[in-house]
Automatic annotation (TrEMBL):
<feature type="domain" description="Endonuclease GajA/Old nuclease/RecF-like AAA">
    <location>
        <begin position="1"/>
        <end position="84"/>
    </location>
</feature>
<dbReference type="Pfam" id="PF13175">
    <property type="entry name" value="AAA_15"/>
</dbReference>
<dbReference type="InterPro" id="IPR051396">
    <property type="entry name" value="Bact_Antivir_Def_Nuclease"/>
</dbReference>
<protein>
    <submittedName>
        <fullName>ATP-dependent exoDNAse beta subunit</fullName>
    </submittedName>
</protein>
<dbReference type="InterPro" id="IPR027417">
    <property type="entry name" value="P-loop_NTPase"/>
</dbReference>
<dbReference type="InterPro" id="IPR041685">
    <property type="entry name" value="AAA_GajA/Old/RecF-like"/>
</dbReference>
Length: 150
């Protein structure tokens, strides 16, 4: 299994427009100045694939607050989406296909004879409940289309 791309919206330093980062076949490096979002992308991946519950939990500080906003608006939603590829399916004798059964029911192809992929999206919404941290509602969705539609 390989993460082919990650897209974020309203997550930390990333605003309301989708920001998609494609991860290359052989080498991927995040290069950028301070405050450009390198760490935020790793944190986004951690919210989807973290080992512990704390790694995977979305908190109030994960939500983007725009420059013209003084505080986080009630109901703000953030989204993190990953496109997963399975290059091991292309190999005729690949013995390392252990991830495939876990994702089989969520796989989709963009057309005939195209490779199978998995598209998953974390959607979280911050709700003002009178406490300092509010409440965060989280939902992981498996999207069975590969285009821009849900």
């Amino acid at each position: 299994m390989k993460i082919e791309s990650i897209a974020v919206r309203n997550f930390r330093c990333f605003g309301a427009e989708w920001m998609e980062i494609s991860l290359q076949e052989q080498v991927t490096a995040f290069v950028g100045g301070n405050g450009s979002g390198k760490t935020a992308l790793f944190q986004a991946l951690s919210r989807l694939f973290g080992v512990t519950r704390a790694d995977r939990s979305v908190t109030k500080k994960d939500f983007h607050i725009a420059q013209d906003e003084e505080e986080l608006p009630n109901g703000r939603a953030l989204e993190i989406e990953c496109l997963l590829g399975f290059p091991e399916l292309d190999e005729e004798e690949d013995e390392d296909a252990s991830a495939i059964p876990d994702f089989f029911n969520h796989m989709a192809a963009s057309g005939p004879d195209e490779p199978l992929k998995v598209r998953m999206r974390l959607v979280a919404r911050w709700i003002e409940d009178g406490t300092p941290d509010g409440t965060v509602e989280e939902d992981i969705r498996w999207i069975t289309t590969l285009g821009n539609e849900l």
